[in-house]
Design brief:
Two copies of one chain form a homodimer. The first copy, chain A, has helices at 5-12, 16-23, 31-44, 50-57, 79-93, 109-118, 136-143, 165-178, 194-209, 226-236, 249-261, 279-283, 295-311; strands at residues 62-68, 97-103, 124-128, 147-150, 159-163, 184-188, 219-221, 243-246, 271-276, 289-292, 319-322, 325-327. By secondary structure, chain A is α/β, with parallel strands linked by helices. Strand 2 of chain A pairs antiparallel with strand 2 (97-103) of chain B. Chain B binds a DNA duplex through helix 2 and helix 4.
Chain lengths: 335, 335
DNA sequence: TTGTAAGCGTTATCAT
DNA sequence: ATGATAACGCTTACAA
């Protein structure tokens, strides 16, 4: 039932090599022969054996996606589903496939790494949401693996795609300023993550561009989660801010809970802007003003660039920044 | 840099076969030799080449997960992330890996299917959320592919794992009855899907077990989405139900919106129970009473059973049903 | 217990 | 333009 090159060759009355040439559409095959061979291939539904093929070509047409397991079911956050969608679409369009690895799970991550990468399963890998102190990236570099990070990485050797965290945050804070808010606090993300750092930088820039002082007392760090946001807001309460930029929607939601417990009204007393534009942001009351990231495009871009790297269409580290967009709803007091 | 069996053999002063035996821990290798060889393997970080290996063993240690692309970013629904987590954990624990395919996307699904399956990439496949009329399953059967469905499938030849939709729904409806509700409507899922059918059956059973009539007028069909739930509820409004079982949390949320627009209070006027226990269910006001599915366990079980099938540890179609649990919050009027 | 050698299904080199 | 033939890195009889 499962045919081989040899079998097709026999059926077509040609040699193995000719069939191979047809399949890889090598030019030097007489058109009529080529057509005849194709016919038989289609007829019997022949498909070359991937393993045999990659044994000689050293290419598997599979790329990996490495995600820290911990971050994988983030509270109602469809980040990974969307990212994966973008990646697979691009992959498939290029005849490639996706292997998914959740790192740091029950299994020894070293084993996983070795099995998958040294085992030659992959042509390249996309790593997502790495912490700056994650040993994965240095290891990939050291091993000469072709890879790309989703999220900027402060080592000029690593390729990455990311959204424009700085500009997005600036837009958010500038919007609050335009609404007349003056004591704008922020719940920033972990400073150990680039996204956390960049969004905080955007906040600072927006303020300073208006000649306003950056005040550490108005900054509290969260971990991107709802609980983290709530706790951070509780610390901020004493400063009596009239607006808040939260570096993630989930932290914004946590902050809102803390504010309400303290009897503050949204947006009258405190205007709020988040970051992400989770589905939740449009369902909740009031609708959450937030910065929307093009997550699916980010994934598509990641795959695109990684495949360019793998196929050798581009040389050296690649850096792509995708624009974001402010989505104004009710939580910031507009209209 | 990248070693081969031959290289290790030379370093260890033994033959290729001996090294191979060590790696596959074949019994007949003298303990001291075995240890010596392992030492060298660890020292140079040797890892057998997966393609070469599977060329001869016919096993790839990779299983596929096929998901309809359309269903992949369902509104805030962390179903797939959790499912994937369960699957990968089990996979990795068995030294296997996961290849993810979103079907019916931009690419011709036939191409994808052929490439991946006939190409010999996979040892087996998990299919999730298939419609009853999806041609994928019949095709897998026809091709003799080892596979398993997440979600029951009405063909006794196919193995599946599923949650206990019928009992879960019965529990939900019985709870509403215990609260004294008597006009209990339901927004059921698509009758073209087994989950839709089963939950409707549970609703009916709960009623009839209490000697109450099943009334079609109290049934409206949705598509598991929020908008679907809202529209269905609008149709149900005229029946003035005092309670509602929605076959998904998202439909429950849509229904709540429709009810509020009609001036009904939750839970005083209409008590509500959903199904899924999305994160959203505990955030919203009032908290949504719902039936919790063990999604991650479902995934783990899927991988477990599929691998049993692949490794030949079990024979014939396998059917596993996992229990669910009623989570009581405020939307059903308890307490 | 260990080694030799024959594949596994491809691609790629070299003649023809 | 086509066909032998040698890899590719591994497993697995079969011999020793």
């Amino acid at each position: 039932m499962t045919h081989t090159l040899e079998g097709i060759a026999r059926l077509a009355g040609v040699s193995r090599s000719t069939v191979s040439r047809v399949i890889n559409n090598h030019p030097s095959v007489k058109p009529e022969v080529r057509e005849h061979v194709w016919q038989i291939i289609r007829q019997v539904g022949y498909q070359p054996h991937a393993a045999a093929r990659s044994l000689v070509t050293k290419r598997t047409h599979v790329i990996g996606l490495f995600i820290p397991r911990a971050v994988t079911a983030l509270f109602g956050d469809p980040f990974f589903p969307l990212l994966i969608r973008g990646i697979t679409d691009t992959c498939n369009a290029h005849g490639c496939h996706l292997m998914l690895s959740l790192c740091s799970g029950h299994i020894d991550p070293d084993d996983l790494y070795r099995q998958v990468l040294r085992g030659g399963y992959l042509d390249g890998v996309v790593v997502a949401s790495t912490n700056l102190d994650d040993p994965l990236v240095p290891r990939l570099i050291g091993d000469g693996v072709r890879f790309l990070s989703v999220g900027a990485y402060p080592d000029s050797r690593v390729s990455y795609v990311d959204v424009d965290n700085v500009s997005g945050t600036r837009m958010a804070v500038e919007h609050l300023l335009r609404q007349g808010r003056r004591r704008i606090a922020t719940i920033c993300g972990p400073r150990a993550m680039v996204a956390g750092r960049d969004r905080l930088a955007g906040y600072r820039q927006a303020l300073e561009a208006r000649g306003m002082a950056y005040d550490e007392a108005l900054v509290a760090e969260g971990d991107f989660s709802e609980d983290g946001g709530r706790a951070a807001m509780q610390r901020l309460l004493a400063q009596a801010p009239d607006a808040l930029f939260a570096a993630s929607d989930m932290m914004a939601i946590g902050a809102i809970k803390a504010l309400r417990e303290a009897g503050r009204r949204i947006p009258q007393d405190v205007a709020i802007v988040g970051f992400d534009d989770l589905p939740l942001a449009s369902i909740m009351e009031p609708g959450l003003t937030t910065v929307r990231q093009p997550i699916e495009r980010l994934g598509a871009m990641a795959a695109e660039v990684l495949l360019d790297l793998v196929e050798g269409r581009v040389e050296g580290p690649q850096h792509v920044i995708l624009p974001v967009q402010l989505v104004v709803r009710q939580s910031c007091g507009s209209r």
